[in-house]
Amino acid sequence: MSCKGLRVIKFPVHSKNFINNPGERLVNVTTQSPFRMTSQRQVILRELKKVNIHPTADDIYVMVRKIIPHVSLGTVYRNLEILSDMGVVQKLECAGNQRRYDGNPERHHHIRCIECGSVADVSPDMVTAFDFSPERIPSWHVVDHRVVFLGVCTACQAKEGGDLKA
Ligand SMILES: [Zn+2]
Ligand SMILES: [Zn+2]
């Protein structure tokens, strides 16, 4: 999905944080509620989409600072949250202790390295055997699910001298 040429993307406001944040430029919160795709957000989104490493906010800050030298880490954090609320960025809640972001908003699964914490994509087509129905969790109202695989990445396997393959 490309946001090139888009100035304003309209999404329903569903984040209390966003409404309560007076620092953000909001237009007609009560009626149309468009989240503005500001030029700063465009840069963050573009840089995030360039990589598939699912970077942390700190990583994205380093990337964005090359283009907007005076941007602050707080601004990058805040804009990542807004881009996530807009649905153009995925926030990976299951990515270990550091929150990571994904420039691909489409539904897909992830695999996380238990050694170095790196995260890679797993296409939904590769998870055909996963069988789940929400009724199996009685008393909960299930709204969504995420599958996170754990493993040891290629680089970490190489570091361990191929012990795992023995
Ligand atoms: Zn690893
Ligand atoms: Zn991903």
Structure description:
The protein is 28% helix and 15% strand. It is an alpha+beta fold. The strands form 3 sheets. A 3-stranded mixed β-sheet has the order 6-5-7, with no helix packed on it. α2 (39-50) crosses α3 (57-65), α2 crosses α4 and α3 (57-65) packs across α4. The protein starts with 7 loop residues before the first strand and ends in a 7-residue tail after the last helix. It binds zinc ion (2 copies). Residues 113, 115-116, 118, 153, 155-156 line the site of one zinc ion.
List the helices and strands and how they pair.
Elements: E1 8-10, H1 16-20, E2 34-36, H2 39-50, H3 57-65, H4 73-86, E3 90-92, E4 100-102, E5 109-113, E6 119-122, E7 148-151, H5 154-159
Parallel strand pairs: 5-7
Antiparallel strand pairs: 1-2, 3-4, 5-6
Bound molecules: zinc ion (2 copies).
One zinc ion (ZN) binds next to loops.
Brief summary:
This protein is an alpha+beta fold. It is built from five helices and seven strands; from the N terminus they run βαβαααβββββα. It folds into two domains: 8-92, Arc Repressor Mutant, subunit A, CATH 1.10.10.10; 107-165, Ferric-uptake regulator, C-terminal dimerisarion domain (Dna Ligase, domain 1, 2-Layer Sandwich), CATH 3.30.1490.
